[in-house]
Amino acid sequence: MDETQRAARRVADTERQVAEHAARTGPVLGRASSPDDAVTVVTAPGGPPREVRVSPSALNMGPRALADEILRVSARASRDAATRLHRTLERVADPAAVRALAEIGFERGPDDDGGFDGTYLRGPR
Amino acid sequence: MTQEQGLATEQRLAAAEGLTEVLARTTGSAEHPTRLARATATATGELKALDLHPNALAQGPDAVGRLVVETAQLATDAAVQKSYNELAKSLGDGLAMAVEAFAGPPPFKAAQDAQAPQALVTAPVEAPREAPGTHRPPWADQVKGRAAARPRPEETDEDDYFADPFRGQRQ
User: How high is the pLDDT of residue B117?
Assistant: First the structure.
């Protein structure tokens, strides 16, 4: 077996493990809310926001302030998604794969994610 | 490893690195079809700018949420399309097609493919109704040395024409 085949097998193994894990735990999604829950954004790693929830009172902020708030919250949701992706992969993939994740732009954030503990998504298991 | 193989490997590595960087750097902008929102996003879906029309807020909180999601998706698609174009420019069409083979078609191409049958259905509706008295003879549009064209609806959007130049000739 040459190096290419070994690498291909490793990729296939990792893919299978990750797919099995994802099938058990559901898709990896990041989530963030503004402090007063005016805006909540749910996003998948590396994708645009999947869901943006705006509270009725947030409409009073006016278009400019509301748009800025959505921008801030969606940036936090993206970071949260990247961190969750790391945590998910750490459980199944080897350290090299997890390092590669950071190289392609998914930074691992801190573990404490602002009091949100799996009420929206199923937590780690 | 021969020199040729080494070069190919190097090119592939450059492509992979380039792709990541291009995806994160390239931004695309899009306006929602309702013109109530405009967004700029990177190809990895990160929102960089967002503008909401004052009338958007009158639609209610749920509609604003949907509006943002849809506009962000459009902007991301535009950015992905742009990165494909950049990649094709810097690495050549061959490599860009290879990327397309494993990463899927660029969004606008996919959207165009999906819309092709729709255009055929809507085409007859676009034909302008001529007012009586303004009837033009069938040869009015004839170009020298070419058969007379069918009367065509006035096209203001040339993109539609170039997407399917033969649309006007189909029934």
Answer: 45
Q: Looking at per-residue confidence, does B153 or B21 come out higher?
A: B21
Cβ separation of B68 and A56 shorter than 8 Å?
no
In a domain, residue B164? The reply is yes
pLDDT tens column, B20-47: 777 778 899 999 999 999 999 998 889 9
Instruction: Indicate which CATH number applies to the domain containing B29.
Output: 3.30.1310.10
More confident residue, B27 or A104: B27
* Torsion from C-alpha of B43, B45, B47, B51, nearest 10 degrees: 80
Which pairing describes strands A49-54 and A39-43: parallel, antiparallel, or unpaired?
antiparallel
How many structural domains is chain B composed of? 1
A9 and chain B: CB distance < 8 Å anywhere?
A: no
DSSP annotation string for B16-63? HHHHHHHHHH-EEEEE-TTSSEEEEEETT--EEEEEE-HHHHTT-HHH
Tokens 């303004």 label which residue? B134
DSSP states along A22-44: HHHH----EEEE-TTSSEEEEE-
B26-to-A46, B84, B95 alpha-carbon distances in Å: 14, 10, 18
Give chain B positions within 8 Å (CB) of A48: 41, 45, 47, 69, 72-73, 75-76
CATH architecture of the domain with residue range A27-103: 2-Layer Sandwich (3.30)
In this model, does residue B134 exceed pLDDT 70? no
- Reported as a single tens digit per residue, the pLDDT across A46-55 is 889 999 999 9
Chain B residues 130-159 within an 8 A CB cutoff of chain A? none
**Cα separation of B40 and B29, whole Å?**
4
Nearest Cβ partner for B69 among A50, A67, A104: A50
- Would the pLDDT of A59 be above 70? yes
